[in-house]
Design goal:
It is built from 13 helices and 29 strands. The protein is an alpha/beta fold.
Length: about 600
Amino acid sequence: MAEAVVEQAMEPATEPAAEPKQRDVQVGEIGAETLAFRSRSWTRLRFEVEYARQKGTTANSYLIQAPAVALIDPPGESFTESFLEELQQQQYYQRIAYIILSHVNPNRIVTLKQLLAVATYATVICSKPAANLLRVAFAGESDSPIMPEEEALNFGIQYDAERSFKLHIVRDEETLDLGDGHRLQFRYVPTPRHPDQICTYDAATGILFSDKLFGAHVCSDELWDAHWRQLSEDRRYYFDCLHAAQVPQVEAALQKLEPFKAKLYAPAHGPIVRHSLSRLTLDYRDWCQQQQAKELSVAMLYTSAYGNTGLLAQAIAQGITQSGVAVQMINCEYTPPSEIAQVIEASDGFVIGSPTLGGHAPVQIQTALGIALSTATKSKLAGVFGSYGWSGEAVDLLETKLQDAGYRFGFEPIRVKFKPSAEVLQQCETAGAEFAQMLRKTKKVWTPRQQIVDAQSDRTEQAVGRIAGSLCVITTHQNQQHQAILTSWVSQASFNPPGLTIAVSKQQATTLADSGSVFVLNILKEGRNLRRHFLRPLLAKANQFEGVESYLASNGCLVLQEALAYLECRVQSRMECGDHWLIYATVESGKLLELLGVTAVPHRKSASYF
């Protein structure tokens, strides 16, 4: 079948600048009787860090048009209308016999409900954890009891006065024969982030529908990965954001899927993997090994009632991993106590996150806390966070118990009411980075001097650490929010026009992402406390500039009154440099705020931390 694209009308080629592309659905044949529906967003779809490369994304669904028609992974509610319109153009639309859900989330349920209104005879296939989520979502009851396993193999869900649907809980290694050789095989591959995840293999086409594995948040007109070398950085970034903190589970999934000998990977996001299948598989294994080889590791223990605490956990973990420390995510709801104890014992620090339900922490978190108190030595660094709807007692419980036991905290406890915003998630990433830096210092304190190895890498880090730069605070204004970034990696780059370069970490660079973005560079004065103020992790709903005197510059960003001088700048270009972005900006105006004073300069002992 020839590839078809449904999209909004574009501006004529004669126009000086085209309008941004709208969301659309791309349809293409990827195998015998198998279509891919790529619901495309050409702009950043969500604010989580995994979308920060600003290259858009695709939500991939798949239709197998066998005698028994199967639809795999309908997209989220952002694409519900356009997806269903395109799906209805297929002749087999009303014959859908199975709807396979690789994982369940609230956005996908919105589309599923509308899909079931027309595919009235379809059976929904998913894992047991996913089935429990569906029962709660369709019943609208957060305390809906879990059906006993012996009753849950095949059952129906009534979701309004007139509608119901059949639900089948698939077992690991179970098969489903659609006819014409399309014999589907299912593998249960849970991870802490997606504890309900399954992958599906079609023997007739050799396609592995891999869900969150082997994807990338990139939107383009290319259905396949023909230019796969250009995808390398996006794929690695996707892995680091989604999988770096759950490497043991990813390795277990790769081992489970290896016997299939797939010819294609059909992931949830990005292009279909055909040309680089072997290379990408090897890359995943290498990236897993690199994570496990890191010197320091942190156990991230959490459970999430409505997904909010899970978002906080992922953001904190991202800040830790991007600082060069390994993280192992543990979703306590699905992890046995023996495994929790093993992970805590092997880690150098641990962080516990909990929602508050009925004024208490869930039983699974209370169990994990007890294990941590009895297993973790007092030399381990600790952290506490959580979300709540009303009072947040769970976070207070965790903080009090760990404090009374004598543990030191790597960041101030984080409390977030309801769903975290983009700013709150950024604060969590910063807290994770601070935890990693403090962990390094703590580890050095607790390591006997005679055990320190004078390796060449240590001497190199010490030498690089002697490079000093002016200590500055970058202030930006984006989405009606003022933000601050503390940095010392600043250097003059040009005389005419006056310009400078700044190196910022990738998670911080989102506010300086576009050419033309403006900011103020506040050059700090030695002997003042501004540095300490902006080093502190920001609590939920807190203001980064609270207690700091400031006023607006002409470009709309804040000038700190206690600064020695400030420069109003505009981004001209940026270049990726390892784990940082190098920003080149020109200076449009500036002012010396104090005639007397010395520029603050940080003195580091190693290049492994700021």
